[in-house]
């Protein structure tokens, strides 16, 4: 797999990779571009581009607002793919589509995969699509070398983690805690045990997200996980004070 | 025919509709709920416990009333009404809620959450929580809180916390999103009492299971009262729980089943909540399940409108989507205007005050009855009572005495 190979190569030089998140068209595509330039300057390895959806039921308040504002501003999946194409042509980090399943379902599985591949994306994260329902989409992804990213969570049983491990490609998205995006996560023994538990069911690199927001979180994850996922915290920094604030955020995070 | 004989590997699917589309974090909780419900469904003593609870607490069986005046006035079919409005808390919602209360007890959970549109489901859930001793939080769109204050008042006084949801369109669908966000956080001690036969499996099946009590009673009663099975059964359809409840009593009979959706301002207005009767909806996946949704070409949900908050929803019961495609259920819509006129007619001729939701079913029956023969029988499900709608109804009929009363009250409260 292209994505897994890329991550393994990066991991030879860095002990913890970074994946960040942008909600397409929020506050605007121009702002998104500037955010991505800053992320690139700080050596971000992967970026999720979230396609806005009207019912973002797994997201916390800040991403809910971002999704709904972008939808209200008329941001469409076609605009997001077009933006993705520009991003993948210009930047060297890898890009994933993130969104809700209805976006892919409504345009049709084949069309979704074709457009994602043409835009230079290397995988997708659809948190409301369970693996039982993902068979057709996963099968279509293989010839295009697109990675369907599977989520593992602290509430999953061993039986379930085994099923999830078998379906995964690229890397595992380990959800650090219960709840929606943007809340606080206790970086402690429970999380350490959960990551180790995930390792028993996959050989893939493990990315940890939900509540990862500061330098001490990255220090905690180093040596336990392979990738840290920064979502809400970066958008919050941008909302607080634009470029300067986002730059200061990444300086603090990686300093 | 059983609606719930699933093919191998297709549990939770009705034709192409239904399924379970939830974040992975809920997989274990939903599986636990599915297994608990399965056990209860297979245990005949569980159903007996449920029926006994509804008899002693909610006044079941609710009667079937013959509307002689209305039948004579319209000059066609004989019209009968199943009186779900006579339940405790004033609607059929209590059937599902008390049933899920029993399930919640078996799950060993101490806290319940629920979404509500008109407030009837929230009111019923707050009642159940008080009775069973559960903590209770109700999510309600801010727009609905504004138009259904009397129900909010009762929920709060029954001990529930009511959260006015400010996201999105601020109606029922947004309240469901907020419930899902609560549930992914608190599933350890919390049961989500979903109020209609929508959402992820096993909810459509479970809600239908409890609401089937309406149809079981109604079939026996109509034969006794009318001397025959009905020719047509009418029920309003928002999410579609009262409809699937009464329809299940007549699935194997030669009875026409009619679901009546919210026509709002009419077919081409963009201001309605009619998924199947009008042509604006398409198949999608949202809020945990696959069905017909009012959505645009990108899969983003459209604004909906209805005079009745309880019908103002983007999606529809997946079982009904399947029955509609199989031509087993006919779908029609009643506009806001038809509903206003019908409510006045029913109040004056029969002394009944159906909820604005239920009045949609009456509106279609009133329109079709004159074209039917006098030997034919209509059964309408009056899913709820309308006195909760006093503010909306008083507004639409512009009642001057009511306005004066509200002004006086405002002065009394120091406004």
Task: Describe the model.
The complex is a heterodimer of chains A (255) and B (415). In chain A, 51% of the residues are buried. The longest helix of chain A has 23 residues, at 232-254. In chain A, 49% of the residues lie in helices and 15% in strands. In chain A, α10 links the parallel β8 (206-209) and β9 (227-230). Chain A has a nine-stranded parallel β-sheet with strand order 5-4-3-2-1-9-8-7-6, with helices on both faces. With 255 residues, chain A is of the alpha/beta class. Chain A has helices at 2-11, 29-41, 61-72, 77-90, 101-107, 109-118, 135-141, 158-167, 189-199, 215-221, 232-254, and strands at 17-23, 46-50, 94-98, 123-125, 147-148, 150-152, 172-175, 206-209, 227-230. In chain A, α5 crosses α6 (109-118). With 415 residues, chain B is an alpha/beta fold. In chain B, the strands form four sheets. Chain B has a six-stranded mixed β-sheet with strand order 3-4-14-9-10-13, with helices on both faces. The longest helix of chain B has 24 residues, at 203-226. Classes of the chains: A alpha/beta (255), B alpha/beta (415). The A-B interface holds A 52-58, 60, 64-65, 68, 71, 76-77, 100-103, 105-107, 127-130, 132-133, 151-157, 160, 164, 175, 178-180, 183 and B 19-29, 167-168, 173, 176-177, 180-181, 184-188, 282, 284-288, 295, 297-301.
At a glance:
The complex is a heterodimer of chains A (255) and B (415). Chain A has 255 residues and is α/β, with parallel strands linked by helices. Chain A has helices spanning 2-11, 29-41, 61-72, 77-90, 101-107, 109-118, 135-141, 158-167, 189-199, 215-221, 232-254, and strands spanning 17-23, 46-50, 94-98, 123-125, 147-148, 150-152, 172-175, 206-209, 227-230.
